[in-house]
Every structure is written in structure tokens, then in C-alpha cells.
């Protein structure tokens, strides 16, 4: 029993991480740090570090090591332009998230009781975001008194528009187990309950009104229907209701219509001149001037405004970028563009290999046995890593902390994991 105490403490710390990621980032950092320290102590006690031989761990360490090298302020052009504090140290502490994932996979979430507790934590977080989004939609303010964001997006329980992307990533791990449980029960009432739950989940994403959240919610639903035959009719009906809701947004939610439809159409019509087009053009220009090692972590933030990157690509019909149009920001708003600017083409290749190794491990056996929770976690990580779209910086804790939590949970459920205790 005494040997189980460290794991019980680590589980308690891990279950505090979702709460911290929602509303108290310091609490999340403390939870992650506690899990990491306890896991390493357990590995040392057992003299067992076999988990480090897993393919995803090897690739993650190679990517991290290359990023560290590129972020080191060497007396060579392009290396570590953000310096020691904003560049090297920020890259160094990424290791805590990789350790956290390994700890969840191989030790903390290896029992059914721990897995049930983790699912309830995720489901309650998704329900909380959804409930607060509906409250803000119906009353104009969330529980903390915050209104919609200026562009019309619902903020849910947050003061700024974080709800859409986070809700979408949590939706399918939370939603698929109860929906599929209802669909497998006899009787029309259970099936209608499953349909209603699926429609409510997807409709909430539409009303939140963030473009990538809505698009990836639809993508996730399509992936779920591809894997699970019983979901295909439900998915078609849900898509129909969601499309009807979008069509009715000029009446039921004009701010959502302005954000979701009008602004999206405007950006797509003139993408290269939109803030995203300007960012990606600038990131490409920076990459081509330092293709082998990029500019180090936070190099985009530090060096983006230099006039040397103004040029655009006239031979491709891409005009010079302009700071006034949004060519610079804290990061390029895409994980893969960030990998290029941080660590060049070798860093991008390592990042892609790491991402594919995660998806391969999560997806093992799913086609033949699509367990609802495993499938939901696979979809959550897949939507995080989807290359087309706007993202936060990798790995900013308030969004990417969820990725490593979901990833560790999914890997713990996958076949062939290494177990400690």
C-alpha cells in the first residue's frame, strides 16, 4: 500500500491540472511539476527507464534537443536570437510537458479507476465551457460578468475568446462514450437521447462562433463517423442541424454570423492580404533566410519586425508584407510554420515525425476496435495537430497543456504501453 501512495498523490496532482488550465495556470504548473518529480523518483526507485525507448519519446527528445541547439545564443548568425531567457530557457522547460505525458501514459493513468477519474475531469471541463457559453449566449454575460468578445465570439467561462478551440478539443473525449452508450441500448428513447446529446455538443461549438473551432468540430465528427458505423446516421443528422443553425445565425445570433460567415469569406477572398496571410508570408521569408536552424525559440517574436523580411515573393505574385497589416505577432499562428522559424527544415521534419508517432500510437487497433474514449482522445490530438489553421504558440501552457494531458491519457489507453507498478 505504501508503494501505491506516490501514484495516488500523482493522480491527485494530475486531476488538478485541468482545473488549473481553465482558471489558474500556476496550479497547473504545480500539478505538472509534482507528477514529473514523482514519476522520475518512481523510475529511479525501480531502476526502470524502459519508457524512454518508446518511438515517440525518442523522436520527442530529438526534436527538443535540436530546438535547444537552435535556441542557444551562439556566436553564429541566426542561432538563439531571443537570447537565453526568452529563447533557450523557454525551450528548455518544454521537457516538463514531455515528462508529464510519459508519466500519465506509463504510471499515473494505468488503472481503470484513474482512467475513470480522468474522464470525469475532462467531461466536467467540457460541460463547464458549454454551460457558460450558453449562459453568455442567452443572458449576454458569463458567470464572471464577462460579455461576448468584441468580434462576436462567445468566451464561455473566460474573459477572452479561448472557449471555441478548447471546447472542440475536449468535446469528443467527453461526448463519444455517453453517445455510443445510448446508441447501443435498446429502444427509440435511448437512440433519440444519443442524437440529442450529439446535436447539443456540436451546436454549442457553432454558437461559440470561432472559425477553427467550428471547422474542426465538423472534421472530428466526420472522423468519428468514419470509424464507427453506428454514428453515421447521427453524424448526418447533426451536420444538417449545424448547417441549419449557421444559416439561421443572421436571426438567432448576428454576432456569430458576422464572425463565422462574413469575416471568414472576407479572409478567404483576400487571404494573402489578411493578417494570417501576412504572418505566413513573413514566416516563410524568415525561414528561407535561415533554413537549417531557423532563429531559435521565440525567434519569430524577436526578429520578425526587421526590414530584411519585408520582401514577400514577387515571383509567386505575393506582395511584400506590411507590419500595419499584421505581418508580425508573438508567433506565426501555425505549429508547422513555427517549427520552421524556430528550428528550420530539420526541426520541422522532427516535429512532423513526432506528431505522426503520437497519432500512430494513439490509433493502433482503433479501426478494428473503435473504443469510444480512445477514439475521442485520438480525435482530440488529431485536431490539435491538424496542419491547416490558426493555432497558439507551441507549447503555450493554457492551450497546449491540454494537448499533453489528452495525449498522455490516450497513450495510457493504447495497447503496448510500458507500465510501472
The averaged pLDDT comes out at: 94
**Distance between termini?**
12 Å
| Order of SSEs | HHHHHHHHHHHHHHHH
- Biggest sheet record: none
Tally of helical runs: 16
How many strands appear in the DSSP assignment? 0
Strand percentage lies at under 5%
Low-confidence stretches: none
Rg over alpha carbons:
22 Å
Q: Helices and strands: which structural class? A: mainly alpha
Q: How helical, in percent, are the residues?
A: 55-70%
- Principal-axis shape: globular
Helix/strand layout:
Blueprint lengths: L4 H19 L1 H22 L8 H17 L11 H10 L2 H14 L3 H28 L23 H21 L4 H21 L2 H17 L3 H22 L1 H16 L5 H15 L9 H5 L31 H29 L8 H14 L11 H17 L8
Helix pairs in contact: 1-2, 1-6, 1-16, 2-5, 3-4, 3-14, 5-16, 6-7, 6-8, 7-8, 7-9, 7-15, 8-9, 8-10, 9-10, 9-15, 10-11, 12-14, 14-15, 15-16
Explain the overall architecture.
This protein has 421 residues and is mostly helical. The protein has a domain at 2-48 and 94-267 and 364-413. The protein is 68% helix and 0% strand. It has helices spanning 5-23, 25-46, 55-71, 83-92, 95-108, 112-139, 163-183, 188-208, 211-227, 231-252, 254-269, 275-289, 299-303, 335-363, 372-385, 397-413. α9 (211-227) packs antiparallel against α10. The radius of gyration is 22 Å and the shape is globular. The mean pLDDT is 94.
